């Protein structure tokens, strides 16, 4: 908090500096000077007394500080438990990990000293087979996270608007801020469904450039119906549909829809379906008219050799992926009915690999999270406006559910 107010104070004096600089470069001897660049785009050179943050773009200086998650090893030291003794149900990871083919492929890497294929050809071919959509429509990224940022870099000019429907995945809002865009929030309804009339009104009035939709939604696990999606696709707005958790919903991905809808992008990931969160592989389906620009703007080597090899190997064992998904879906249902029996939790039905719970009976959600952490069980707690009083619990293996339930019962 201290750091934030300090940088804000510095920020206001810098605005004055910029204005002064700007006036100086426009007028010499009372005459207006032409410049090859609009003056507003020229960064003022920092004065000798400036500190390093004067080099940073203005809108980024106002960004809230990044809150990193604790690395697994650090968490393990802090909790005084071996990593394998921690029940990690706080980040929607897939506790089964990838199929054995991935470990074999990583161990057999022949050319780690050669740069990866900038077009990830092998993986895109495998994804085309997996999804039924030709590889021309598919682009791979360093996690879906990278693709969210890449889309924004290609689509948004500073000051452009996006629509966000909280509570949802917070990276949309974060990346919008990094890209200097404005976020129009259309909060979800009490049951976490989209407020379609409000979205329609906002699109008509505010002319935002794109909307980020998540189905199943993180953190509640609700899905968007085809009718709702079609209604939004009919609006003059680019729709980015994030399907990071689609496998757990039993629904078909909408990847193929990008052939019919010029304003649709669909994002997916290997983090959840294939247990590859640590290797960072995400992918997206794009209309041809859009994907060509993402190719131009992306970092050439955004997907590492290890990441591409791992994802290809994972796709070679669809039976493993299917079994793991089925185990998680089955465990989700067991976890849901067990959580319903906890007197201070009210769980929401979920189509994903996590369950959102309202914490009731006057119990403090933050303390609940901390008490569970002391017992080696990590869950996610929320203190943001729309989700104050909620916790989210990822679905683990049956033994993880058993430990969690034991701890929750001790905290009654
Ligand atoms: C809705 C949603 N989209 C995207 C991601 C990030 O996916 P990746 O690990 O591929 O960057 C997450 C991660 O939790 C998520 O919840």
From TrEMBL:
Aminotransferase class I/classII large domain: residues covered: 85-403
GO MF term set: histidinol-phosphate transaminase activity; pyridoxal phosphate binding
InterPro entries referenced in this protein's UniProt entry, alphabetically: Aminotransferase_I/II_large, HisP_aminotrans
Cofactors, names only: pyridoxal 5'-phosphate
Membrane-spanning intervals of the chain: none
Domain of life: Eukaryota
Pathway assigned in UniProt: Amino-acid biosynthesis
GO biological process: L-histidine biosynthetic process
Keywords from the UniProt entry: Amino-acid biosynthesis, Aminotransferase, Histidine biosynthesis, Pyridoxal phosphate, Transferase
CDD domains: AAT_like
Keyword Transferase carried by entry: yes
Stated name of the protein: Imidazole acetol-phosphate transaminase
């Amino acid at each position: 908090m201290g750091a934030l107010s300090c940088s804000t104070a510095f920020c206001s004096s810098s605005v004055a500096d910029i204005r002064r600089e700007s006036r100086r470069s426009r007028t010499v001897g009372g005459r207006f000077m032409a410049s090859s660049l609009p003056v507003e785009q020229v960064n003022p050179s920092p004065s000798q007394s400036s500190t390093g943050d004067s080099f940073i773009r203005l809108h980024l200086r106002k960004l809230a500080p990044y809150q990193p998650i604790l690395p697994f090893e650090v968490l393990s030291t802090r909790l005084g438990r071996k990593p394998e003794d921690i029940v990690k149900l706080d980040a929607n990871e897939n506790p089964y990990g990838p199929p054995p083919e991935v470990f074999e492929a990583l161990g057999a890497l022949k050319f780690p000293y050669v740069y990866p294929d900038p077009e990830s050809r092998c993986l895109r071919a495998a994804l085309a087979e997996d999804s039924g959509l030709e590889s021309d429509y598919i682009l791979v990224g360093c996690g879906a996270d990278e693709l969210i940022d890449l889309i924004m870099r290609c689509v948004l000019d500073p000051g452009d608007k996006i629509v966000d429907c909280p509570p949802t995945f917070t990276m949309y809002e974060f990346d919008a801020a990094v890209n200097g865009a404005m976020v129009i929030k259309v909060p979800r309804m009490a049951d976490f469904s989209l407020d379609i009339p409000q979205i329609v009104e906002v699109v008509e009035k505010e002319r935002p450039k794109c909307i980020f939709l998540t189905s199943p939604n993180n953190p509640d696990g609700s899905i968007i119906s085809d009718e709702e999606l079609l209604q939004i696709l009919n609006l003059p707005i680019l729709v980015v549909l994030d399907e990071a958790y689609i496998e757990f919903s039993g629904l078909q991905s909408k990847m193929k829809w990008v052939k019919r809808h010029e304003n649709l992008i669909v994002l997916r990931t290997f983090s959840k379906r294939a247990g590859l969160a640590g290797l960072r592989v995400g992918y997206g389906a794009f209309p041809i008219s859009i994907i060509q620009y993402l190719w131009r703007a992306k970092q050439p080597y955004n997907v590492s050799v290890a990441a591409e090899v791992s994802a290809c190997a994972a796709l070679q064992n669809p039976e493993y992926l299917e079994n793991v998904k089925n185990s998680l879906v089955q465990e989700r249902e067991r976890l849901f009915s067990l959580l319903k029996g906890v007197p201070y939790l009210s769980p929401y039905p979920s189509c994903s690999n996590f369950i959102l719970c309202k914490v009731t009976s006057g119990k403090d959600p933050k303390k609940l999270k901390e008490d569970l952490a002391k017992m080696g069980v990590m869950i996610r707690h929320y203190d943001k406006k729309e989700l104050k009083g909620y916790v989210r619990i990822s679905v683990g293996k049956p033994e993880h559910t058993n430990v969690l339930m034991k701890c929750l019962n001790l905290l009654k």
